[in-house]
Design a protein that fits this description.
The structure holds two protein chains of two kinds.
Chain A (H helix, E strand, L loop, with lengths): L1 H9 L6 H31 L14 H37 L3 H15 L3 H11 L9 H27 L2 H9 L4 H32 L10 H12 L2 H30 L13
Chain B lengths: L2 H42 L3 H16 L2 H11 L9 H26 L3 H9 L4 H16 L1 H14 L13 H11 L4 H29 L4
Helix pairs in contact in B: 1-2, 1-4, 1-7, 2-4, 3-4, 4-6, 4-7, 5-6, 7-9, 8-9
The chains are: A mainly alpha, B mainly alpha.
């Protein structure tokens, strides 16, 4: 964050009296424009009667929050399970890809790229619409968890690979000169260091997983979004509920992001996200 | 029902669906880039409130799940006096989300330049507009080719949210639902859609990589 601020400020010379005045005027104008925008939104709520207490008062009741929290627990359960599965699968895909076996390496490469280039919703439809046609009945929890995990595993495989590449070459060479076998080097030297490097990236990937779980209503799994829909039909308060739920999701994801940045800062490693990887 | 039969029966609508998915991706990406540029200008402007607005905007739209934004557009906005067609809702949602990520890419492109270059440019007497035009923009554009390629692919995948609202023709993910509700296609419809997504991503990724190799700045 400090780098952002310094570069932003570096673009400008120290302002003289004229520029300072101009910046002050610009600040005043933008504040007025901002206030006008906020006023417009509030007016829009007001004239459509959406500020009516009956749309908001039920948020003061504990039962509302208990039901939303139950939904949130569902979201957390799916996200954590999908995250664990994705880490496991991603690790396997990466190990397969860096192995010296050409066939295994190519297969893992193709699978990784395939999962990265399919929308998670398509995978959810696969488990929701296609698999049951072949007589396999899955509980709704797994119908949402497995596709989300598969979509994330492709990305995580690439994150792990970047982590392995970030371990200095000298480490492997030193281990080789000690006479360690290839498998032993991967297990004892490369992986422990690579895993430590990618921890912040794994945390930040959790944001994508949480976002993917929001379509759990497709398979009618009671997550936060699904429970919010139930409350909407109970209280007949759609606008307030959808806005509150959106804010809850934003808060969770923002906190997760900040936590991963904090971890990255502390360990001095970089967050590897989808944007920095090689495209498919 | 095999893949070939899916093609003979649903070939026409599949073609429309692929074209509409591509078109939506292109529109959303172009719109997202344009809005992203505007947001980035706000974020680097010397006016504090505008910077804050830009920062808050990015945090809001990069953290909101697409469905959550889509239901607000489709179901909540009509209560607030704005009823939009389904396709407009989808495009607006994807553009807002893409613009936040585009602005993040632009910002890291700008941050990668380094304070020293700006100081050097100033010491050889370049004006502010010259610094922006000759130093900042060319370099930040060249470093963002790969992230933007990934964003373009992510845009393609985000348009899959269109399957949650009725669209004619349905986009590629909605097609799985469309075909399955009209015949016993089983896995074939999924395979066709998956091939279209993967194929598009591979081509886009290949082009992005080539462009990146051409213009990348080695630091």
């Amino acid at each position: 964050m400090s780098a952002t601020v310094s570069m932003r400020d570096a673009l400008y010379e120290a302002p003289g009296p004229k520029t300072r005045r101009r910046v002050a005027i610009g600040t005043a104008i933008s504040l007025v424009a901002l206030a006008a925008l906020v006023a417009f939104v509030i007016r829009q709520f007001y004239i459509n009667d959406q500020l009516n207490p009956r749309y908001w008062s039920f948020f003061a009741r504990w039962t509302t929050w208990r039901f939303l929290l139950t939904g949130l627990m569902g979201t957390v359960r799916v996200a954590l399970m999908a995250g664990v599965l994705a880490i496991f699968l991603g690790l396997l895909l990466m190990l397969g890809r860096i192995s010296s076996n050409k066939v295994l390496s190519t297969v893992c490469h193709v699978i990784t790229d395939l999962f990265r280039s399919l929308p998670s919703l398509l995978l959810i439809y696969f488990f929701f619409l296609v698999i049951p046609r072949y007589g396999l009945k899955m509980p709704s929890f797994w119908m949402i968890t497995v596709p989300v995990a598969l979509a994330a595993s492709g990305v995580l495989a690439e994150v792990f690979r970047a982590g392995v590449n970030a371990v200095p070459k000298g480490q492997t060479e030193a281990a080789m000169s000690l006479g360690m076998t290839h498998g032993k080097i991967t297990r004892k030297i490369v992986l422990p260091q690579a895993l430590r490097i990618v921890i912040p990236s794994l945390v930040s990937q959790l944001v994508v997983v949480v976002k993917d779980t929001t379509v759990a209503y497709v398979v009618s799994y009671p997550d936060l979004m699904q429970n919010a829909r139930v409350l909407i039909s109970n209280y007949d308060a759609l606008v307030s509920m959808y806005f509150v739920v959106a804010l809850i999701y934003i808060a969770i994801n923002y906190a997760t992001n900040r936590f991963s940045i904090y971890l990255a800062h502390r360990s001095g490693s970089k967050i590897i996200s989808r944007t920095e990887e090689n495209p498919v | 029902m095999g893949v070939a039969e899916v093609f003979t029966e649903f070939g026409d609508i599949y073609l429309q669906s692929v074209l509409s998915t591509w078109l939506m991706t292109a529109v959303c990406f172009a719109g997202g880039l344009t809005l992203g540029i505007i947001i980035t200008v706000l974020r680097v402007s010397p006016i504090k409130p505008l910077r804050t607005v830009g920062d808050v905007y990015v945090q809001l739209f990069r953290n909101i799940p697409t469905v959550s934004l889509l239901v607000i557009f489709v179901y909540a906005l009509p209560y607030l006096g704005a009823t939009l067609p389904y396709r407009t809702c989808l495009l607006a949602c994807v553009i807002l989300i893409v613009s936040a990520f585009a602005s993040e890419n632009f910002m890291s492109g700008i941050n990668a330049i380094g304070v020293g270059q700006i100081e050097a440019a100033r010491s050889v007497g370049l004006s502010f507009t010259q610094i922006i035009r000759l130093v900042v923009i060319p370099q930040s554009l060249r470093t963002t080719v790969l992230p933007m390629t990934n964003l373009l692919i992510a845009t393609l995948l985000t348009t899959a949210m269109g399957s949650q609202v009725p669209l004619t023709p349905p986009e590629l993910t909605g097609m799985v639902n469309y075909v399955n509700s009209r015949s016993v296609a089983g896995i074939s419809a999924f395979v066709v859609s998956a091939i279209c997504y993967a194929g598009t991503s591979v081509v886009l990724g290949f082009l992005g990589n080539r462009l990146d190799k051409k213009v990348r700045i080695l630091r």
